[in-house]
Amino acid sequence: MAPGLTSPPLNQRKSRKNKGELPPARMAVRQPHMKRCWIAGAAALLTIVLAAAALAASAGCTYLPIVTRQVGPPAPADVWQPEPGTTWQWQLSGTIDTSFEVQMYDIDLFEVPQAVIDELHAAGRVVICYFSAGSHEDWRPDAGDFSEEVLGNPLEGWPGERWLDIRRIDLLGPIMQARLDLAVQKGCDGVEPDNIEGYANDPGFPLSAADQLTYNTWLAEQAHARGLSIGLKNDLAQIPELLPYYDWALNEECFTYEECELLVPFIDDGKAVFGVEYELDAADFCPQANAMNFSFLQKNLELDAWQIDCTGRLTW
Predict the structure, then answer these.
(1) Are residues 42 and 100 in the same domain?
(2) Are residues 193 and 276 located together in one domain of the fold?
(3) Is residue 144 one of the residues assigned to a domain?
(4) By residue range, what is the domain housing residue 144?
(5) Tens digit of pLDDT for each residue in 120-177?
(6) Which of 26, 105, 112, 114 could potentially form a cystine with 194 if both were Cys, beta carbons 3.0 to 4.6 Å apart?
(7) Backbone angles phi, psi at 202, to 5 degrees
């Protein structure tokens, strides 16, 4: 076991079900009707395509307009780009258990001691470092660097946390760049930026999908400029646009919400899809996760060391 984490003790915080203390495990505030909104958007797009086809036919054309996928700049060759099926452990609370025989560990950027990162590297593990890129957490050491004008509504169920105005890259950029620099300084191989779908929630600012795409693309470019791998956390609706910029995906509860098909483009592009389920039993989702070549775990809401790894068994 690695040395314990520093103040505030993560293992003393409560899960998101208990609102008395700050929880370490970060899950995006879910938009209840996101899937219906996505379907409605797809229907609108289909209507536009059909209208264009009708217009082309009326002009005597025999072809349909071609819709192409956005292509972003390639990641640097030395950036970690995990293949589907990569094994992993995700722990954001408690003393880090370094004994799991996995390829990647995802741990907190600020809280985990340098000695733990060094130990994981010595064992041949890739280390991904978590931080929130879309919210202000008042217990972080750089909390005082955020100006009041970028602080929005509280995140429901997360005391001490407020949404950020991601349109203000002029103000947020230096803070996030400093966090990415810290990840490089600590030897992280990549980062997991959280809360990067504020536009689909109630942030207190009129954030648009375009605003989110601009910010998320900027984050990926900044990570790659430092040789860091970066994962797309949730934000399923924007996968078609963001896939070229991100090296892997991390999802929470897509089987619970029947959204997993939206992650398949990552697999088709040869990129790993990491994920967790909190409420479902492993036997209820692992067979499907394995069939889709996802790297899924059953985890506690606290995101402590406990896990059941879907890839650890051939049959369920």
Answers:
(1) no
(2) yes
(3) yes
(4) 73-312
(5) 999 999 999 999 999 999 999 999 999 999 999 999 999 999 999 999 999 999 999 9
(6) 26
(7) -125, 75
The identity of residue 271, as a single letter, is K
Are 231 and 307 members of one domain? yes
Dihedral sign computed on CA atoms, order 124, 225, 217, 152: positive
Nearest to 301 by CA among 275, 273, 279: 279
The strands making up 161-164's β-sheet, listed across from edge to edge, are 135-137, 161-164, 151-154
CATH code of residue 171: 3.20.20.70
Same domain, 58 and 93: no
String of DSSP letters for 133-163: SSEEETTSTTGGGS-GGGEEEEPTT-TTEEE
Counted domains in the chain: 2
Average pLDDT, the chain: 83
Query: What pLDDT was estimated at residue 76?
Result: 75
| Any domain includes 18 | no
**135-137 and 161-164 beta bridge pairing:** antiparallel
Q: What is the pLDDT of residue 75?
A: 72
First to last CA, the chain: 30
Taking Cα atoms as reference points, which of 210, 271, 295, 294 lies closest to residue 75? 271
* DSSP annotation of 16: T
Residue 37 lies in a domain: yes
pLDDT at 27 over 90: no
- The C-alpha atoms of residue 16 and residue 14 are separated, in whole angstroms, by 7
**220 token code pair:** 């990926």
Q: What is the mean pLDDT of residues 29-52?
A: 42
203, 163 contact by CB (below 8 A) = yes
Q: Residue 240: how many CB atoms within 10 A of its CB? A: 12
SS3 call for 203: coil
DSSP, res 260: G
Distance CA 277, CA 158 (A): 19
**Cα gap 145→142, rounded to integer Å:** 6
Considering the domain boundaries, does residue 14 fall inside one?
Answer: no
